[in-house]
Amino acid sequence: MYSGIDVNTMEYLTEILSVLVASGIKFMLGIGLVILYDFSFWFGFGLTVTGGIGAMFIFLFFGPAIDRIWNNMPWRRNKVKKKFKWSRRLIVRIKQHGGLLIIALLTPIVLTIPFGVLSSLSLGYGWKEIIPSMIMSILFWSALLLGLYHLIGFDLSRFLEDLILR
User: Fold this and answer.
1) Rounded CA gap, 70 and 76, in Å?
2) Entry pTM
């Protein structure tokens, strides 16, 4: 019986989907998968940018609702909220010293895209400010990291592995 899709095509589609999802949740993981799967520069660039920007829009427009639902779960309702957490202090310090520019610049490589978008929203920035800054940051980091790999063979994953294992 012929199913219409052979095994190689399914593996390829799974690789593409894994890069898209990984780029949306943890951008550096998406970059690593592009290198692992040996995609071309432009194809990998398109996948990581699409995954990152897609996740940005999802968390920008549905993030507050997801946050509200999460905080109203039965096991979270009766918790006493601490006024001062280390994460809140960090966010306030970032807002004082650079604001959205610093958050957008750090989001793809250090922070996760959901955390970067939700923290930008919690600091009071609107979607008209968040969208251009996050898109530029995602484009910049994707072009830089994939460009370094494809032009000069700099493999960030091997570099970090060597750095950690030393």
Assistant:
1) 8
2) 0.79
CA 80, 25, 18, 61: dihedral to nearest 10 degrees?
Answer: 90
The answer for 160, left when phi > 0, alpha when psi is -120 to 50, beta otherwise, is alpha
Q: Is 41 helix (H, G, I), strand (E, B) or coil?
A: helix
- Tell me the per-residue pLDDT of 39-50, one tens digit each, with 9 for 90 and over: 999 999 999 999
User: Which residues, other chains included, contact 31 with Cβ-Cβ below 8 Å and sequence gap of 6+?
Assistant: 23, 44, 48, 141, 142, 145, 146, 156
Residue of 124, 148, 126, 140 whose CA lies nearest to 35: 148
How many Cα atoms within 13 Å fall on the side-chain side of residue 32? Answer: 14
The domains of the chain are located at 7-165
Whether the Cβ atoms of residue 48 and residue 22 lie closer than 8 Å to each other: no
End-to-end CA distance of the chain: 53
Which residues, at least 6 apart from 114, have a Cβ–Cβ distance to it below 8 Å?
Answer: 25, 55, 59, 63
- Would you state the structure tokens that stand for residue 19, as one six-digit string? 């890069």
